[in-house]
Amino acid sequence: MNSEKQAERKARARKIVAFLKKNYPKPKSELTYKAQFQFVVAVMLSAQCTDKVVNRVTDSLFKKYKTPLDFARVKPADFAREISSVTFFQNKAKAVIAAAKKIIEDFGDKVPQSADDLQKLPGVGYKTAHVIMGELFDEWPGIPTDTHVRRFALRFDLTDKKDLNRISKDIEALVPKKDWKYVNNGLVLYGRYICKANKHDCSQHPLTKLWPPAADRWVASK
To answer: Cα dihedral angle (94, 49, 140, 32), rounded to 10 degrees?
Structure first.
């Protein structure tokens, strides 16, 4: 990529992040939980599923399962039945139980406090690990890219990539590290409540006003 295009992207990203920082100043997940490992579970369940559905499932689930040991002891078939409202529930059930066992065996029954260690847990990749780091430990060593972040990164021409992890790296190169914490949370809330994924007239939306060409750039879900 030529330096001029990269400079344009940096300038555009700076304006977007300034808006997010002002409007969503305290990054906080909308997933509900009380114990740290419950949040890990909630994030794992939320992959390709809405927070609203996950919260509905975990409302009763988390009254029964609180610690890694609680999750490690349950049979996969039984747990899958309990989370059957979420997408890919059978695979997620196996991953949650395996992650709980690994935390008990390798991390002293505590959620790891580094992104690298978190990614050693079954079912936890770059995005999930960095969401957990931000929410539980207020540390932001990377920018997690989910469907909302991907959508806006492509619509606002901040990347040419389609892979979520590569999009993260592109955005991280555009945004100062001190502001990484505002990107995922801000774009998730903006995408959830202001500029939704379905094609619509968003020319008067705040971010689109910052870069009007985004009004005509619609991104496929995959």
So the answer is: -90
Asked if the 36-137 domain carries CATH number 1.10.340.30, the reply is yes
- Ramachandran assignment for 214, one of left (phi > 0), alpha (psi -120 to 50 degrees), beta (any other): alpha
How confident is the model over 68-107, as pLDDT tens digits? 999 999 999 999 999 999 999 999 999 999 999 999 999 9
Residues 15-34 have pLDDT tens digits of 999 999 999 999 999 999 99
Q: Which residues lie closer than 8 Å to 87 by C-beta, 6 or more apart?
A: 47, 48, 49
Domain residue ranges in the chain: 3-26+149-216, 36-137
End-to-end Cα spacing for the chain? 24
Q: What is the residue whose two structure tokens read 């997940």?
A: 29
* Long-range interactions of 207-212: CB distance < 8 A, separation 24+: 207/16, 207/19, 207/152, 207/156, 210/12, 210/15, 210/16, 210/19, 211/12, 211/15, 211/16, 211/156, 211/157
